[in-house]
């Protein structure tokens, strides 16, 4: 149940789409694959799913090589391609039966009934795919990806173009599926990454620029920022004099935003300042760096 990408490079003509990248997705992880448009996400996902080949490097899925054992991998891997290509003229049940037969499942009809229930397609199962809403079409895309009960799921922008309610439903579905599968999913939505993923891998211009856990300290290389509100306005010069030059102090509404250039948590100093100047602290909090800011910084 793992994906190992080792030094893969892919070129389209003279253009390098993916440049010598390596990463690993461990069994049971849900990993968000992020990057601006054109960074190389879809290309990488196609290579892992055996729908495209790399010029150099190696990809192993559950220990099997994409070059040597693509059929073995396709049995163990589910892939939702970018823009969810579907046969709109086919009926939901007909399409899923077609996919089940391609996978040569023992009881294709049972697999169809089972997956329809799993992805919540029951009310729409008798319709043509083209008649479904975007949210339900996305469920059909996910259904075709999981009908053969793969261990590994590659989902390329599974929630693009969904409304907020559909978004919630599809995220919950992915989270449920992720409980016993290894998932790599690409998305642009940071909230999604925070709510679904264990880890992020960020790619920019074909190169990996970050690979870290969601709960890792995002402040690592940043200034620590404290927001404080006093019951009365202190003089800015006094604050600066007390906290020293290695801080950036800004007034924001009724609060002060105080950043330490030395990555120091200044809450104790601020509390001492308040005591010395007989001020009451109404609010004192450490601002946490946001994943969105990290993404912007990395991909600028
Ligand atoms: P992402 O999924 O991150 O948006 P892609 O993997 O789709 O990025 O694309 C990476 C780069 O490779 C882009 O510059 C894109 O234009 C180029 N590219 C992707 N597919 C093809 C193709 N079939 N032919 C030529 N260039 C391509």
**CATH topology name of the largest domain:** Rossmann fold
Q: Count of helical segments?
A: 10
Work out the number of β strands. Answer: 14
Strand order of the largest sheet: 6-7-8-3-9-10
End-to-end separation in angstroms reads 33 Å
The kinds of small molecule bound in this structure are: adenosine-5'-diphosphate
Based on CA inertia axes, which overall geometry fits?
Answer: elongated
Unreliable stretches (pLDDT < 50, length at least 5) are none
- The domain count comes to 2
Return the CATH architecture of the largest domain: 3-Layer(aba) Sandwich
SSE class:
alpha/beta
The level-1 CATH class of the largest domain:
Alpha Beta
Order of helices and strands: EEEHEEHEHHHEHEHEEEHEEHEH
What fraction, in percent, of the residue positions are helical?
25-40%
Radius of gyration: 25 Å
CATH superfamily of the largest domain: P-loop containing nucleotide triphosphate hydrolases
- Strand share of the residues? 25-35%
Q: What do the pLDDT scores average to?
A: 90
The major β-sheet equals: 6 strands, mixed
């Amino acid at each position: 149940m793992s994906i190992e990408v080792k030094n893969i490079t892919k070129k389209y003509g003279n253009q390098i789409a993916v440049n010598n990248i390596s990463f690993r997705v461990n069994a049971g992880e849900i990993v968000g694959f992020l990057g601006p448009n054109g960074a190389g996400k879809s290309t990488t996902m196609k290579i892992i799913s055996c729908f495209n080949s790399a010029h150099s490097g190696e990809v192993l899925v559950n220990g099997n090589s994409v070059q040597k054992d693509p059929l073995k991998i396709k049995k163990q891997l589910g892939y939702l391609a970018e823009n969810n290509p579907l046969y709109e003229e086919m009926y939901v049940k007909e399409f899923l039966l077609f996919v089940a037969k391609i996978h040569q499942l023992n009881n294709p009809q049972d697999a169809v009934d089972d997956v329809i229930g799993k992805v919540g397609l029951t009310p729409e199962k008798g319709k043509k795919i083209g008649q479904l809403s975007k949210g339900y079409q996305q469920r059909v895309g996910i259904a075709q990806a999981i009908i053969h009960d793969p261990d590994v799921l590659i989902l390329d922008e599974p929630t693009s173009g969904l409304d907020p309610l559909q978004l919630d439903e599809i995220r919950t579905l992915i989270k449920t599926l992720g409980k016993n599968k290894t998932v790599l999913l690409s998305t642009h939505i940071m909230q999604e990454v925070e709510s679904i993923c264990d880890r992020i891998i960020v790619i920019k211009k074909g190169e990996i620029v970050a690979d870290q856990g969601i709960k890792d300290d995002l402040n690592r290389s940043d200034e620590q920022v404290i927001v404080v509100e006093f019951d009365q306005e202190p003089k800015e010069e006094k604050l600066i004099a007390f906290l020293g030059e290695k801080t950036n102090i800004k007034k924001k509404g009724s609060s002060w935003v105080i950043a330490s250039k030395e990555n120091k948590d200044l809450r104790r100093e601020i509390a001492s300042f308040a005591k010395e100047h007989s001020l009451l602290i109404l609010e004192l909090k450490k601002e946490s760096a946001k994943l969105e800011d990290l993404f912007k910084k990395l991909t600028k």
